[in-house]
Amino acid sequence: MQPFELTLAEAATALEERTLSPVELTESVLERIGAVDERLGAYVTVAGETARNSAARAEREIADGRYRGPLHGIPFGLKDMIDVAGMPTTASSRVRAGHLAQTDSTVARQLSAAGGVLLGKTHTHEFAYGLTTPQTRNAWSQEHVAGGSSGGSAVAVAAGEATFALGTDTGGSIRVPAALNGTVGLKPTYGLVSRHGVTALSWSLDHVGPLTRTVRDAALVLSALVGHDPQDPASLRAVPSACPLPPDGGDMTGLRIGVPVNYYFDRVAPEVEAAVREALTQMTDMGAELVEVEIPMTRYIQPTHWGLMVPEATAYHERTLRSVPELYGPDVRILLEAGELVSAGDYLRAQRSRTLMRQAWLRLFDGIDVLAAPTVPITAAKTDQQTVQWPDGTTEGVPDAYVRLSAPANITGLPALSLSAGRDRAGLPIGLQLIGRPLAEATLLRTGHAYECARGVVDRGSAVAGA
């Protein structure tokens, strides 16, 4: 096994025991980037020399007995919405050409303090306003979309081009590409991880979180990111100082898993539904109790999500949309211009709907510990595919299909985890989504890790199709 194929937990153990050095690990990942990224397009910027210098410093520190913890010497990527002092934050847009960040974002500073080795910036759909990330190809088939908007981060992890990465999630932008590329993606509770220094799409829906190869890896990264940040107005004050690692083993005794009887299995590809249903059966074999639940206010999910996101995004881009509209991509420009047509009354109604929806979802969790459902209704679409045709005669845009099952967790601010539940007949990954109560990341991670242990499959970078 090559170092770039290691999970974060495996690499951390090897670094701590000094059977592998940060320099060796970083060189292996950089070589992997050089070998496959021209085809996959995960990175917009690779900071090779900076990474090598950081790895050498980590090696010296570990040799001197100054081991900082499991992220020390681990190479990672950052979605190009996240500021690092002295590096461009382009948001994959011509609008940001020549932009250099003056200071570190809070999450970049936290990862640096933990000893992480920054490899570079990963591609995003322009300003994170999309679900396909067109610059990036799927890690398992270059003819298929990577998902988005954190597509670059997901592909980097899936392809062995980063041991872990960070993304942002406004309507599924961590979980969607995680599902489509067979990685783990965690959207934490709203306000648990700071967004200071992260380019906004929609401030009331935006989250920052990790993309990793395993659930345990996600827990390790999350532990370095949690904590109150007075520079983020939405940052929670009463938060855990760290996220406990899930225990090993496949026991789910006493866990109540909610299974939706509506919405989440409506208009879902048969192979996706079958894989998720099989995962649920496996969870019962591990001691979990399945509880049927009805998802509340489903007719309001899409209008509430769009009623919040569209005007907030337009407000953020107000000046540049008026001064340099031609620099935006056509799809993003149309959405930003549409936001100017949303009235204050409509925005306030969306806020009210969000409040009612959050209250209803909290009541839903009175009877369950975790909600389990598909992450996305279809696997990765072909790059030229625009719509999905459903058996009931419905035609749905590909981005709309991808956001449909992930948006509720953004509206409500609940934590949500996506992990692999197998493959379809074409070999493309299928995502299982777990949603929990506010600040119940430990329960989500325990559940996901137990299922992962029982399934016993970790997709490593060396398995990337055609790479």
Automatic annotation (TrEMBL):
Q: Which GO terms describe its molecular function?
A: catalytic activity
PROSITE patterns, A to Z: AMIDASES
Record domain Amidase: where: 24-445
Recorded hits in Pfam families, A to Z, give: Amidase
Q: Could you tell me what this protein is called?
A: Amidase
